[in-house]
Amino acid sequence: MKDYKEYLHESNDVAKYFNVNIEQGLSSAESKIRLRKYGYNEITEKEKETIWKKILSQFKDFMVLILIGATIVSLLLGEYTDAITILIIVILNAVLGFVQEFRAEKSIEMLKKLSTPHAKVLRNGFWQEISTKHLVPGDIISFRAGDKISADCRLYEVNNVEVNESLLTGESIPVSKNIKKIIKEVSSVNDRKNMIYAGTIIIAGIAKGIVCRTGMSTEMGEIANLLQIDSNSKTILERNLKYLGNRLLLFCLGICLSIVLIGILKGEPIFFMCMSGISLAVAAIPEGLPAIVTIALALGVQKIIKKNAIIRKLPIIETLGCVNVICSDKTGTLTKNEMTVKKIFMLDEDYQVTGDGYSLHGQFIRNEQSISTAEGQSLKECLKAFTLCNNAILQKNKIEINEKWRREESNWSIDGDPTEGALIVAAAKCNMWRETIEKSNKKIKEFSFDSFLKIMSVLYANEKKELVLYTKGAPEKVLELCTHCYINGTRNELTNALSEKILNECNTMGKKTMRVLAIATRKIPRWDESYSNRDMVECNLDFLALVGMIDPAREEAREAIQICKNAGIRTIMITGDNPNTAVAIAKELKMFNEDKDIVLTGQEIEKIPRDQYKKAFKNVRIFARVSPRHKLEIVKSLKHSGNIVAMTGDGINDAPALKEADVGIAMGKNGTDVARESSSMILMDDNFATIVAAIEEGRGVYANIRKFLRYLLACNTGEVLTMFLGILISLPIPLLPVQILWVNLVTDGLPAMALGFDKNSKKIMQELPRQRKEKIFSRGLLRKIIYRGIQIGITSILIFIWSLSYHQDINYARTMVFTTLVFSQICHVFDCRSESSNVFKIGIFGNYYLNIAVLISITLQLAVIYIPYMQNIFYTVSLGWIEWVLILFASGIGLITSGIKTLFSMENKVAYKAVSK
Questions:
Q1: pLDDT, tens digit (0-9, with 9 covering 90-100), for 90-119
Q2: Domains in the chain, number
Q3: Looking at CB atoms within 10 Å, which of 313, 374, 657, 881 has the fewest?
């Protein structure tokens, strides 16, 4: 297969070589055999790091290496118990670090799998979508504009296909494709006009091809340069935390060095003080914070997946929480995308169409009389245009609908654009079928839908060998191309009065929430090469009809828009549709206020100077009849105004706007590969409510990361302060090295990770979005960390002083301060669950994982205190009930003061609101 040069052979010969019937495709059984033979269609990645390497990497940290060195010195000095204990704690910390990194890596791998593209292939005689990794040589594959090619293919059917091959050739100019075999050998990829290669992108047209090479055998495989999602990029937050970690490292090392020097000057043993300093430094520096942040982001991704969205880039979770403007498509996102033709307007008569969705059970009604077949030449030509100027396929349980199946009860579905699907269904209700019409009409050429021109046309040769053009598109665009019209079957000149009548009807239909298309035709006397240029063909058209379709607004979108209002998020509708239709839908969704909101069209945008965009767009709620270029300008302007913008898109031309947006959102059902590649998030259900749910999770993840910081840094501050105060006021060392490390292991690990499972606050979508430049420690977080750290340090040292004077036993005093630190931090973790409330209001049972983590921490601490063997290792003693009362009181002081503070804060807010009123 490697030496076979398919571009030198006719497509039929290529099909024979790969033993495939291009009408049926491969069978499921044969595709499995070939998959085993050729392997998955993917580029081989570099060998992954083994588990053992990952575990060993945990011991490369600077502070851990120092601790291991100190352990070796302890062994040499005969301090075997301390050395073994410290080593065990170091190993346990390494295991915990490995688990955190392993979970983060698995989450990123999951993102890669979910982002795997799909291809439309012919298997067992039916078209179906499969993962591109399951493509095999011999598969029959279909392409359309916007698709990213996943295998090297020999084309056998093309229609105005242009391909961007810049990834392989470096040339950005699109290459036109054909199916002709190449006569002589050519070495350059862009000279093989009958081939299409993995990694390239369909810019225009539709095509079918035979898969010839997959995986590492493709041209892309040979240069091993497959584009992948940037799953390893660091978020702004992660970079900030790394910067914070470096500063904390220097600060903590300075404090710990001071403690060591002061202790030595006061006569403490040098080795003992060095061990204490190293242990304190290890405990004080939150080295696990980056891994915990990654896990928090990954948990957010998993929650969003459950809500029908896929995050392609991990950093975007953080950005989602900042979004304050959502630019959303109308069709399919704010509406159900279940198009149904309801009215056909002609200049001589109107037709009402009954039925819903893609069911064929419906009728054409004229003058209150139903008709079952097309009557009159105008209606026949109109329905012909419905079926022929159309690329959608009506299917019944994977069986293409035709005359044999059309009246059977079943679940119908559309493979293709929903608008085109509605037109096919409408024609079928009047017994007009594409396969019947095409028996006497041959397709000559297609001019694909152009997002700028907003029209699509097809050229057919009829049974009389006449060339007939059928065009559909935006009414105002189609009317610009029309010179004549049909009235009572007679061709007449399209006067200004008739044009005005058509546009008035278009506006009337639009106000009834209908999406309106215009249908036109043209007879061409003979073929001319100049007709390959659409400008020469799409002119002097004959107007046939207006088609009104309804697409109901989504109920959940209405609720989601209200949530956005409460959350300080502005929702903007961007559509290529008629302004009247857009306004009608917006009113139905309660997102448009006629007194203050503005509608702006693409034509009006063209007249506005760029430096006036900011002012002009300020109160715009709907952008109608806009092109992809306008979308890009809108996003740029909104960002320039300081907004954080989320933008939806589905077409190839939406890619620039999706890339420009802070959060580019592609459609999972109807989006193109190019749109998905350019996006940072994919909606699997194309639903606006899913965007809002994702933003909520983004806010929740950020809130959880603030909880981590508040918890870890306050606890570490308390530990350092306890040791520092003890040395400063000439007390014995409050904690031994093994006790410091134990506190770090018991409190910094499991409870901190469990905070990531906290449910979002019920008020999280009632808060304003945070600003782009907002610091992680803003809104009083740093103050809370310092306050609680000082409180933990002071109460712990007071417990130490009391116990030392009361019991006159250093081990008793150390056991009490040791336990006070652990329980203070356990109490603090519950206080960290909310920044606006307190534990007495939110309770302690809202996070199952946190409860389990705390229970494990308490059990481990009790084991250290009461099991004799553990007492010998950690130099602890059993505590009595009086000591426990003091410990629990000291540990709970933070919760009590927090509750009182929150209560006064709430009273002040109530008083302020009363005064304001």
A1: 676 677 667 756 765 665 565 555 556 788
A2: 4
A3: 881
User: Tens digit of pLDDT for each residue in 793-845?
Assistant: 999 999 999 999 988 899 999 999 999 999 999 999 999 988 877 777 787 88
610 with 681, same domain: the answer is yes
Half-sphere exposure of 586 (CA within 13 A, CB side): 27
320-to-242, 316, 453, 662, 769 alpha-carbon distances in Å: 21, 6, 34, 8, 10
Segment among 14-28, 166-180, 418-432 with least mean pLDDT: 166-180
Decide if 417 is catalytic.
no
Spot the catalytic one: 139, 152, 329, 542.
329
Of 662, 686, 710, the last residue of a domain is 686
At 128, which CATH number? 2.70.150.10
| Contact between residue 745 and residue 93 where contact means Cβ atoms under 8 Å apart | yes
Task: Using DSSP, state whether 346 is helix, strand or coil.
Answer: coil
Q: β-strand 598-601 against 620-624: which pairing, if any? A: parallel
According to DSSP, the β-strands at 490-493 and 482-487 are: antiparallel
Q: Which residue type, as a one-letter code, is found at position 525?
A: P
* Domain extent for 329: 312-335+554-686
Place of tokens 């520092």: 724
Q: Look up residue 651 and give its amino acid.
A: G
Q: How far apart are CA 366 and CA 359, in angstroms?
A: 20
Write the CATH number for 844.
1.20.1110.10
User: In whole angstroms, what is the distance from residue 604 CA to residue 593 CA?
Assistant: 20
Q: Say if residue 602 is in the same domain as residue 630.
A: yes
Distance CA 864, CA 856 (A): 12
- Judgement on whether residues 835 and 898 belong to the same structural domain of the protein: yes
At 206, list the tokens: 């539709």
Is 662 found in the same domain as 561? yes
CATH number at residue 489: 3.40.1110.10
Looking at the fold, whether 779 and 883 belong to one and the same domain comes out as yes
Rg (CA), the chain: 35
Last residue of a domain, one of 194, 223, 252: 223
How far apart, in Å, are the Cα atoms of 152 and each of 171, 200, 480, 891?
Answer: 18, 10, 42, 67
What does the alpha-carbon distance between residue 799 and residue 820 come to, in Å, rounded to a whole number?
8
Q: Domain with 663 in it: what CATH number?
A: 3.40.50.1000
Distance CA 363, CA 494 (A): 30
For residue range 542-558, what is the model confidence (pLDDT) as tens digits? 999 999 998 888 889 99
**Long-range contacts of the stretch 415-420 (C-beta < 8 A, 24+):** 415/127, 416/391, 416/392, 417/391, 417/392, 417/670, 418/331, 418/332, 418/337, 418/338, 418/339, 418/392, 418/551, 418/670, 419/331, 419/339, 419/515, 419/517, 419/549, 420/390, 420/391, 420/392
DSSP letters for 697-727 = HHHHHHHHHHHHHHHHHHHHHHHHHHHHHHH
Residues 753 and 662 grouped into a single domain:
no
In a domain, 799, yes or no: yes
- Scanning 173-287, the segments in alpha helix (DSSP H) are 219-223, 236-265, 270-284
Residue 623: inside a domain: yes
Q: Is residue 195 part of a domain?
A: yes
pTM, whole model, 2 decimals? 0.72
CA–CA distance, 198 with 148 (Å, rounded to integer): 8
